[in-house]
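Repro case for the chain-ordering regression, as requested:
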Amino acid sequence: MASRPDRARRILVVDDDASIREVTRMTLEMVGGHEVSTAGCGRDALAQAVRERPDAILLDVMMPGLDGPATFERLQADPSTADIPVILLTAKLQATDQARFVALGVRAVLSKPFDPMKLPGEVAGLLGWREATDGG
Amino acid sequence: MAADDLKAQDGSSDGRESAADRAGAAAVSAIWRRHRAEILGQVGAVEDAVRDGVAGRSDNGGRERGGRAAHKLAGSCGTFGFPVAGEIAGRVEDALCGSCGPSADQYLALVGLAHALRRALESGSPAL
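-- result from build under test --
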């Protein structure tokens, strides 16, 4: 049976690719029932994370300027954002990259491409968000 | 399709799951159509890098732009229902982003891959 998180969460999606930002936002809102904000670069993500205090951040790895890992390190260094769980998103994920990113302290790493309709469930599972079955 | 309609269809029965899947696929296709031009622009960046490499005037900046575009395509094409294009983009990325850069022969092979990448995106329909 399909399920849905017990309550809407606030998720910040950070990707310099506008098409990925939009499809990620669509599915997290429409399928996952979450509130989603987006940022197109690491610097904007840092400011929004402080201002919005999201429940989670989906962060692209390869971005011009401040890339995903560098953005994550700055989030960790700021006490106001250090406890926000971060999932990195990257194309062509290598096992060595995954180990390196997890060692940094990210909650998980998801690879692109992804199935848009399954993404909300994967995110909820990785973050340990309790799921409530429909009608339950 | 309104968000509430889609949520209401989420997972109660097989038939309603199929309706939700169809609605989701339609939403993803609409996003693809809105971003098609910019995604094809990324293909153009790949083609530029390959063209410069074949002509022997490749520089690190152009190769890096092409490799970055291929990386983005490797992530986005499959998400929008173009898995073959995504796989081709991944191969192009591997070639352009190697530490030494492609050899002359590899650049010639990349011409075919870049052509196949554009064809897969321009002539195909999303397989959602």
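Ordering looks correct now. Residues 14-54 of chain B form the longest helix (41 residues).
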